[in-house]
Design goal:
heterodimer; A: alpha/beta; three-stranded antiparallel sheet; 39% helix; disordered C terminus; B: 322 residues; alpha/beta; eight-stranded parallel barrel; two-stranded antiparallel sheet; 10 helices; 18% strand; globular
Chain lengths: 468, 322
């Protein structure tokens, strides 16, 4: 019986975000705003033949107990402006940016992404997020204006409009039905827009759509609208479940297994030996949780001021309060009481201080080992359908992926699971995605899928999370 | 002060890039207009940033239907990627076609649209200034990355072109751009005196005329009126159709001398997209050498930021020096 060909590993690079994954206190930590930092990471990733470079978005500075949170990296550039500049200093790597569908208008976003696609010869990608709250809305004309369910329906409609506009690029005027001279016309519950979209045809057809759905309805949203899922399911076990679940949804939407790629976000820590890597992982974890940072982490879970407690003492012996003291970030812990009880038990069993506990529960690194071992683990995860590829989230700016590219990529190539040159002419081809389908096909497939009783749940408001 | 020269470059990855590379190092800036057609000017200027080395990059943005917060962060970011060579040209939307692209409110009349634009100019500068230059401290003794006392709430109250009030809170997400205030350009028009007064640089439409005498052709005030309105601190540039015939090209130096005698600090040329590349070559091979020979232009130090090239003083923060 002939052996099946090995599934190929795909990689992408996440610019370090404004959270405690990013270590700014290390002497090797560079600027988070100067262009050289972005150029360095993007070029490194391109040297490693990564599919894309990924940049998050900031719309309002995070707050903690009513003040701007000052313990993590604060401040970032405008997402599209950096991607456009990176298009000038790279040749192959995809340029993916997070952009809110809530505090932007479809014409503006579609045109900016189309501009990047033209300037980069087909390398633009958009991580679609919705923004949850009046807190962020305070910086925008609309303010906090949509309730939870509406926000997500608007996002789906928003992507449809963007694809309609991209279809109109290069087509010349007069193609919108019932109009004279317009390229597009879209009237829906959320938008009433029309006009010209007079850009040249897009090299990639449509910029690649990324989405970070995780809930049941979020997965359906991705199955119905996205090209790539960016997920938190980094460990192979939960990854396999997520992968199988999402991929089985695709048929309902008239899509094949290869039409939606799954990319968990991961961290990689390397060493010359397994022991050295483990020691390095402990050091990095310690850097990721400063003394003040440990208390702030606990405050976000307890939702109360814990500044009176010693990070090097036991966990605070007070109950959590009710109201959220943190603004501008997504809370991943659902059941606070149960989580705290679990942590108390863990701290007692292992005799951990508060800071040691925070390190333990918040800084687990996904792949720790020698370059060869990490390459084998990544390949194994991809062969067993835990992922199609991985988005690497380095803890250092800008050199955090230098070692991975220099050491892990050659090992992956040695294993026969990694490209030795870029295979395609644009991001869509490098990801192994099919050519862009017209906007109308996405819409009609979705309508048909959801009209089928067994296709999915009745909840049509996917739960998104913002990615930082 | 060297006579300032800029030219219009359309956001086009082929001819626009070629024209920008041609004039880079020879003139002061490229103005990239944006009328919601073709490639986004801010994205195009961002792309040109790493490809050019001396050229000022001034993208146009129409602020009537777009988000001021995004305009502020994108322009601040351009100042980083273009290494202190960015500016921003503020315009408005008054057409039904522009309004229909966004579908948010009806087409604006010129006066309320420009009234909002003047407010947005102030807001954008406040967002740029909402981080002090030294806000990032990386203080390991207290584990603090920033000193939050060096960040400022903006809390601007504005009124849009349809009369609806809105506010923008701040601070910006992007640290203060290297120039502090990338130069803001406004083209003088009817109804936009407030925006013109708040600009760093003002463009006035000028027609060379048959006899080579400056005639002010725009709907806005004349050069003399603008001088009266603005005083000596705001440079005024004559916005002029690019000369095409050898006679017109040869006449440009005399015309520049006349403009200078009447108070203009420079010229920004505009040419149709299909003529820009040819004109950029003429600019660097004929016009600029002639202006230099006539003593109008002196070489600018390599690496100068755009404010310096335009003769503007360093920008003080509206917060730390208010």
């Amino acid at each position: 019986m002939p052996e099946l060909p090995l599934r190929q590993v795909h990689l992408a690079a996440h610019f370090p975000g404004v959270n405690n994954t990013t270590v700014w206190s290390d002497p090797a930590s560079g600027s988070h705003i100067e262009f050289d930092s972005f150029a360095h990471l993007a070029r490194t990733a391109e040297a490693g033949l990564f599919d894309f470079f990924f940049l998050a978005e900031g719309l309002r500075l995070r707050e903690h107990q009513g003040q701007i949170f000052d313990l993590d990296v604060v401040g970032r550039p405008n997402t599209t402006a950096v991607l456009s500049a990176l298009a000038a200093v790279t040749n192959h790597i995809g340029l993916a940016g997070t952009l809110s569908s809530t505090f932007n208008e479809p014409f503006d976003i579609a045109r900016k992404l189309a501009s990047i696609d033209v300037l980069s010869s087909g390398r633009a990608a958009w991580n679609v997020v919705t923004t949850s709250n009046a807190f962020t809305g305070a910086n925008f004309r609309r303010g906090g204006y949509l309730d939870y369910a509406e926000r997500y329906l608007r996002a789906e409609d928003f992507i449809d409009v963007a694809r309609e506009l991209w279809d109109a690029a290069g087509r010349g005027p007069g193609h919108a039905a019932g109009t004279t001279g317009d390229d597009f016309s879209h009237i829906s519950d959320f938008f009433d827009i029309s006009g010209r979209f007079s850009l040249p045809s897009l090299p990639s057809g449509h910029p690649v759509i990324l989405q970070a759905g995780d809930s049941d309805s979020g997965r359906d949203f991705a199955a119905g609208s996205a090209d790539v899922i960016f997920t938190r399911h980094s460990d192979p076990e939960s990854g396999r479940k997520f992968y199988a679940d999402v991929k089985t949804r695709l048929a309902d939407y008239g899509r094949g297994e290869d039409d939606l790629k799954i990319f968990p976000g991961i961290s990689v820590i390397l060493g010359d030996t397994q022991e050295e890597a483990a020691e390095r992982s402990r050091e990095v974890a310690s850097q990721q949780v400063s003394e003040a940072g440990a208390i702030a982490f606990l405050e976000r879970v307890w939702d109360r001021d814990l500044s009176a407690f010693d990070p090097d003492g036991p966990l605070p012996d007070v109950p959590p309060a009710g109201e959220s003291i943190s603004k501008g970030r997504v809370k991943h812990i659902k059941d606070t009481e149960a989580t705290i009880a679990e942590w108390r038990a863990l701290a007692e069993a292992e005799n951990l201080t508060a800071r040691e506990l925070v390190i333990k529960v918040s800084t687990r690194h996904s792949f720790v080992g020698t370059p060869r071992q990490v390459a084998r683990d990544l390949s194994e995860a991809v062969q067993t359908r835990s992922a199609d590829g991985y988005i690497l989230v380095p803890h250092l700016t800008p050199g955090g992926l230098d070692d991975v590219v220099a050491k892990v990529v050659p090992e992956l190539q040695e294993l026969g699971v990694y490209r030795t040159e870029y295979p395609g002419q644009n991001l869509r081809e490098n990801l192994g995605l099919p050519p862009a389908r017209p906007a109308g096909e996405w819409t009609s497939n979705r309508v048909r899928a959801r009209a089928t009783p067994n296709a999915n749940s009745t909840d049509t408001s996917p739960a998104y999370r913002e990615v930082s | 002060m060297s006579f300032i020269i800029g030219t219009t470059i359309t956001a086009d990855p082929r001819t626009g890039l070629a024209a920008a590379k041609t004039v880079d190092g020879h003139i002061d800036f490229a103005l990239v207009p944006d009328a919601f057609d073709g490639i986004d000017a801010l994205e195009f200027a961002s792309w040109l940033g790493p490809i050019t080395s001396e050229l000022g990059l001034i993208p146009g943005v129409r602020v009537t239907h777009t988000e001021p917060f995004h305009v502020a962060t994108a322009s601040a970011t351009l100042d980083y990627t273009a290494r202190s060579r960015s500016g921003l040209s503020i315009g408005v939307s008054t057409s039904d076609a522009d309004a229909a692209l966004f579908g948010r409110r009806p087409a604006a009349d010129s006066a309320p649209a420009w009234a909002e634009a003047a407010q947005i100019i102030d807001l954008v500068r406040r967002l740029w200034d909402s981080w002090d230059d030294d806000a990032i401290i990386r203080d390991q003794s207290t584990d603090r990355y920033i000193d939050r006392d060096r960040l400022h709430i903006v809390d601007a109250q504005l009124s849009d072109s349809a009369g609806t009030d809105y506010s923008v809170l701040g601070p910006s997400i992007t640290p203060r751009p290297p120039q502090g205030h990338p130069p803001i350009v406004v083209r003088a028009d009817a109804d936009n005196a407030a925006a013109v007064e708040s600009a760093d640089i003002v463009f006035a439409d000028v027609d060379a005329g048959d006899a080579g005498v400056a005639e002010f052709t725009g709907a806005g005030p004349s050069l003399d009126e603008l001088k009266g309105l603005l005083g000596p601190k705001t440079p005024i540039l004559a916005r002029l159709a690019a000369p095409t015939s050898p006679v017109e090209v040869a006449r440009t130096t005399d015309f520049a001398l006349e403009l200078q005698s009447r108070g203009a600090s420079g010229i920004v040329f505009s040419a149709p997209r299909e003529e820009q590349l040819e004109f950029s070559i003429r600019l660097v091979s004929e016009i600029v050498p002639a202006l230099t020979a006539a003593g109008l232009r002196a070489p600018t130090a390599s690496g100068a930021d755009l404010r310096t090239r335009l003769g503007l003083p360093a920008a003080h923060s509206l917060y730390t020096h208010a």
